Amino acid sequence: MEASIAGSQSATGRASDRSLRIRNLCKEYRAGEPVLRDVSLAIEGHGLTAIIGPSGTGKSTLVRCINRLVEPTSGEILFRGQDLVRLSARELRLARRRIGMIFQEYNLVERLSVIENVLCGRLGYVPVWRAWLRKFPEADVERAFQLLDAVGLGAHATQRADQLSGGQRQRVGIARALMQEPDLLLADEPTSSLDPKTSVEIMELIARRAGENSIPAIVNIHNVGLARRYADRIVGMSKGEIVFDGPPQGLQDSHLLAIYGGEGWLE
Amino acid sequence: MSDASLPARPQRVAFPPNWPVRIGSAALVLYVLYASTVLDMTWARFMTGLDQGARFLSRMFPPNTAADKLGLLYSGMTESLQIAIIATAVGVLLALPLGLAAARNLAPLPLAWASRSLIVAFRTFHPVIVAILFVKAVGFGALAGMLALIVASLGFLSKLVAEAVEEMSMKQVEAVRATGASFLAVVIMAVLPQVMARFIGFSAYQLDSNLRNSALVGLVGGGGIGATLFTAFQRFDYDFVLTIVLAIIGVVMVGEIVSGFMRRLFQ
User: What is the pLDDT of residue A6?
Assistant: First the structure.
């Protein structure tokens, strides 16, 4: 086990492995009604990419297609030398271990303790009996504690997850994702259920942890201000297509009009 | 009148008559009257019945507490308790996998339907009928009663497990799945924590109900206190019958307290 926490894990020369190539991705939940229309997107092996766009435009579907919580209809998603779309169930499981995900509603297992939730991030690595008996390897437990300290919840380790506030839960969600030692972080509207101040703190935390460990992060977010503030790159989507792709400084009102339509809201 | 100033409007009905319910209730009353004449439910018949009942009751008092009878009571009761506890334990152990296999949100559909059919088969007949079948199949005694109660427990518990699993939050499951956890690990860390409290509640309830039913299956040859009760009836030992009935009431009440306590323990 690496001695330091998320810090140095596999950072040594892996950065090149961490890029993601999405090619011609299409998704139709119902035939003839595409949610994603031929999306192609290349994410370099570092930096935070924010995906913005109106509700129902396929941001969530795009992010969920990457770890196949949603099955793509067609296209390729290349990551660590594999096309994720074509993986068998077992290969997909192994690939998912390297993709951490943060959810809008935190999706913690409510009746488990905080530390158990964080250790869920190791389930892809440890044998089932260890999870059953809660005999996780010492190093994993130690790292879980360190991650909890890092997100400011060291004192809450044995509390049940349903006793935490929204912001605290999302911190646990982040720790769980980092616990996987991911090569890619996905976040699906991580701040949409939080108040403005907590939202900033959570984005700050995601950006910092991703940056420090040079983990590329893809964050769906509909708060344009937060996107501008924390993203290295902004991808704007509208009606299942990418209509803007560039650095935050390049995002003009005209682009926002193209992404969201209307104009009254811009003033 | 202030109403006068309001514009006239068409008469509106807050509670329109519900004709299907009215007709249905009238039909039910008529049918009950008709059925009771057919079944000779006259006042005179009722009075003869009461008369006979009074004589029966008077022969029950005082309850028989002779040492040999108490010995019979004790051995019958312990056998019933053993039947109930073993049947509950085995039922609980088997119901968890069967219930999971029957949950349509976890198991592949063919497996779910097969398991559901099995559960329906278990639930079709009352424990007494199942006990009669087992008495014919494996002979008189505790084994037949136990098998009958295992079937009953399995039918009840696995159906409730399946329902609890189908009602659980899939978000928590999705999040654990996204870490690359295997199916079993998902079950252990995301499914069981959500359904365990309810499952323990059901199991406590089933223990309670097995205690009551263990007397019942004994009546048809399934061993235990029911067999003792049946013999006492046949020998017109009505005073001993009363002793047995009181003992059963006592045990069932204690069982209810214990199961209530267990349920509260695991809320």
Answer: 43
